[in-house]
Amino acid sequence: MKAATGLLTVNLDALVENWESLRRRAPQANVAAVIKADAYGLGAVPVARALARAGCRQFFFATVPEALAVRHLLPDSSECFILGGVAPDDMSAVFEHRLTPILSSQSEFERWSEWTEAYGHCGAGCGLKFDSGMTRMGLEPDELLAIARQPERCERLGVKLVMSHLACADEAAHPQNAAQLEMFSRVRTQVASYLPGVKFSLANSCGIYLGDDYHADLVRPGAALYGFNPAPGAANPMRPVVTLRLPVLQVRCLHHSASIGYGAEATRPTGAVLAVVAGGYADGLHRILGAQGAAECAGQEVPVVGRISMDTTLFDLTDLPDAQTLAGGSMDYPVLTVLGGAFDVNRVSTRNRALGYEVLTGLRSGRYRREYIGGEG
Predict the structure, then answer these.
(1) Other C-beta atoms lying within 10 Å of the C-beta of residue 171
(2) DSSP E strands: which ranges in the chain?
(3) Which residues contact residue 332 at a Cβ distance below 8 angstroms, ignoring those fewer than 6 apart?
(4) Is pLDDT at 272 greater than 60 in this prediction?
(5) 46/363: higher pLDDT
(6) Which of 28, 61, 269, 342 matches a 20 to 30 Å C-alpha distance to 99?
(7) For the whole model, what pTM was predicted?
(8) Which positions are tagged coiled coil (predicted)?
(9) Catalytic site residues?
(10) Res 377 pLDDT > 60
(11) Residues annotated as binding site for substrate?
(12) How far apart are CA 355 and CA 172, in angstroms?
């Protein structure tokens, strides 16, 4: 790699294989794809295109602008759900581009009613979200049931999906999972008695692996598509999707002990060999590397030393067999892998005590060249 920026490689074939693996895990449900936050930092346009070619027809976004960036690439039969609902300024785009907002409050539902009446139709319809125990966004169950008891109105307003969200799906034994499933199942039975054509959704990536009871009509994987382990504590059934490699800008051998980086928080002794690598906190590396970061170089683990700077990060190469040769400038500088191989997103996130979601979405800010493999289908 002879460049001044890192290379982010996204394996779209692996992404599609992960989606197909999740379909096999939940054969009775539709398997959607959550591609909010620019597909968790990996690029919503190529990700959506690859999944659509593979047969995915339900996509979830956080905002209307996110959906608009890819809607034109998707088959007309695709459903694009907006998890953040819809604001007045986005209303015309929602109707024009057949987007489906998820409504999470009584006031949102009433506004949707007013808008559909004004537009004369319900566009691609709407979904309703209720709170089954996460205590975040969502209608109270009683509010949802009050809406469901108006089936003619719900049909007129295009209610097509009722969903909730699990708070602790990444901890399979957590009692909150069973409690939320019990509430979800009870509410589902009640709502379905009034709205028999409506679909239901509860499970995210980890929720899919809690069992068939959690699958309902539609599951909403996000992180698992991108290689994150949806079954913590067990072998990862997902293929790795992302690799991030960073070029070395300079290698130097210390001729005396020295403090390293901003704040002089680290020191290294005489003879230490340090590499200055292209990429810093402006590129999301503080999320990827954390407080005790490391990378792979020539098959060996090398640690971060000192604070991560805006544009660069220092690694200690002292223990590499060729460290002194590198410092002498008589061989090409190596490339450091901070994501990929032994440093997959699960290991990296566990090591730096971050969520895998944080590691992946941290890539969004990166000044990386991007390379996409496969996905043409």
Answers:
(1) 14
(2) 7-11, 30-31, 33-34, 58-61, 79-82, 99-103, 126-129, 159-163, 199-201, 218-219, 242-253, 258-260, 266-268, 273-278, 294-297, 300-303, 312-316, 335-339, 369-373
(3) none
(4) yes
(5) 46
(6) 28
(7) 0.93
(8) none
(9) 36, 262
(10) no
(11) 136, 310
(12) 16
